[in-house]
Amino acid sequence: MGNKGGKVTIRTVCGMPDYLRCGLSVEVTDGVITKVRPADFPDPVDKGACAKGLAASQWVYHPDRLRYPLKRVGERGGGNWQRISWEEALDSIVAKLQGLAAKYGPTSIAWTAPILSNLTGGGYSRLMSLTKGTWVDWWGCGDAAGPCADMATFGSPMGERYLRNFEDPKFTIVWGYNPAVTVHTFMRRITSAKKKGCRVVVIDPRFSETASHADEHVPIRPGTDGALALGMIHVILELGLQDERFIAENTVGPLLVRDDNGFLLKEGDLVEGGNQQGFLVFDESTGGAQPCDNPAVTPVLTGGYSVSGKKCRPAYQLLADMVQDHTPEKVSEITDVPADVIRRLAVSYATQKPASIYRGWGLQRSFYGDLACRAINTLAAVTGNMNLKRPSTFVLNARPFLMPGGPYTSIPLMSLCDAIAKGEPFPIKAIWCTWHNLINQMPNTHRIIGELLPNLELLVVCDLFMTDTAKYADYVLPVASFFECTDLCRADLEHPYLQLQQKVIEPLYESRSDFQIAVELGRRMGFGEYFNKTEEQYIEEILASGHPTMEGVSLERLKEGPVMAKTLDRPQQLATPTGRIEFYVERIKQFGQELPVYIEPLESARSEKAESYPLSLLSTHPSNRVHSTLVNITSLLKIDPEPALEINPVDAKPRDISDGDVVRVFNSRGQIKVGAKLSQRIKPGVVNIIEGWWHEQYIEGHLNQLTHDEINPVQQRILQANAAFYDVLVEVEKG
């Protein structure tokens, strides 16, 4: 509970929306936060906190923080508000929610909340479950292409961990990633491995903060990472450096694919009533097709065969055929990476084992980012540079807490506009928005304001500040910071701890925690019996799974400090249709992407459109905030005071642009004005604006007026479509 008097030090967890969950040791004097430090962990390498977490107390005490509930007066976005009580706000909102649900159906009420096995999002999850509302799955806001690739390859949206999960790698590629800014835990691992002799290569169009710590930086043309991975596979196969045993035992490589329809050959194709999940390989010893799970077979990886009159080839052969023309010379023309560098990267990755890849979010933010990530997954599979060990974890009793009324509907974030503007696939008429600055973070701002808002009958925003999204709300509710509420922070796959986020101060002003708000809503909606316990009582329920991984874990134990996860004593089971690593994905054969083919970016700098808009625009992550969170903190603004366009002098000179000049950045969708920052650290032909700035911080416009919301149907088929924030062409001119 919060401290009211004297001086105490409380261990809690950083609740910034980067989900890194760093431990914080917070000194509180007479109920006021006076110092924030990194907290200890069982493994010292996990101790650490970034400037964002350490500056969060300034966020809590910021003079512009919302202090009481507000109701819109006049037109949306007009800036006129009326102060109201919590009782009036909640009563009015509940009446409107229930009226809309009765008129349009319960799924017309959408919730943008983080659905984790904890209280902050868990309270809203309970409401959705009980009211049968709709959860807006936010992954598509730039973070879904990689998970799409991993769902296709591994059957898990977080399968990319297999590429980097090595204790002491000898060679590491940091690919489209800047963990020195975004994931400090990873950066500590990378620098630790480098000190032990690991060679580190960064592939990125920018000479990033991470690149400055690497042995080599490889500047690449944006959106061409998949071609580079395929070129590396070409070299590896040409030199015979592939790991054929790993391929045969763990991947779809030996599985036979029919020439006539491109589907995997199954026992049911040969025998009427046969097993349609019985995948076949060609056995070298018997000279015939055999079930792939027969331990006695010696499957071949190459060649062409006829099985009961059906011509087929192993999936590995199809991959080898596809990469045949991806020579280093051809790939160099696509990527701008020299052919000799492609060869050297390929040989190093295949021979300096174990070799790891930190596959970042940057390379997936092109329209075909899922293909690029699949190509990199395939590169790791072909060389056997994967650790398929099941990660340490906790098995919580989360589902009864999150879904007491059963499952609810979900909608991908990128489908939200169509649901609101067109009623497809079903109408959305109200949004409860917490933990997400929709208008600031979603692509194609003009459409959000022009089509989304006019068709919404209710928008409620819970936040600490009057954000870009809150300005357009009907009701704005002041929410408590993570320092002002209790929560359970489960381990993720890279930070294997269960931690208690302890309240260190009481909520300021009239703010309430998201969980408390959900409780009050639930009671007003007639679900009081599901919201009748304290935060700590619900945490105890979540902990009480009885699973062996939870042995010795209790609320009282967590109050003493974090608990490290235990390893599960069962082998990893891949959830793909074949149970294997799939670089050949049968279920997307209809799209011509069963193999991770290379396709030029949607807005390619070598397309006809580039004649008018020749520069590729990136919008990379900030180093001193989390997206649009902390954008108003004075101490952080001293480091990075305003939006700027990063541009290479090679591109600035013919445009008569000098450092500090105001420039107009534009395309057919919109324009913005910012100051120019000339830098050799960015590749010619590429410009960059750090994302997350609020609208009023630009001279004119907003970054996402330049971006688009085109939907990739393959991503939609596998998981959900991803916003292609880095697949954008612009022109820049002075003034």
What's the Cα radius of gyration? 26 Å
Structural class: alpha/beta
Strand order of the largest sheet: 5-4-20-19-18-6-7-17
CATH topology label of the domain at 166-251 and 315-386 and 578-591: Dimethylsulfoxide Reductase, domain 2
Q: Which CATH C-level class of the domain at 166-251 and 315-386 and 578-591 is it?
A: Alpha Beta
Q: Taking all residues together, what is the mean pLDDT?
A: 93
Q: In this structure, how is the largest beta sheet organized? A: 8 strands, mixed
Broad shape: globular
Q: Please give the CATH architecture of the domain at 166-251 and 315-386 and 578-591.
A: 3-Layer(aba) Sandwich
The helix fraction, in percent, is: 25-40%
Tally of alpha and pi helices: 24
Through-space gap between termini: 54 Å
Residue fraction in strands: 15-25%
What oligomeric state do the depicted chains represent?
A: single chain
Q: Can you identify the CATH superfamily of the domain at 166-251 and 315-386 and 578-591?
A: Dimethylsulfoxide Reductase, domain 2
| Low-confidence runs of at least 5 consecutive residues | none
Tally of strands: 29
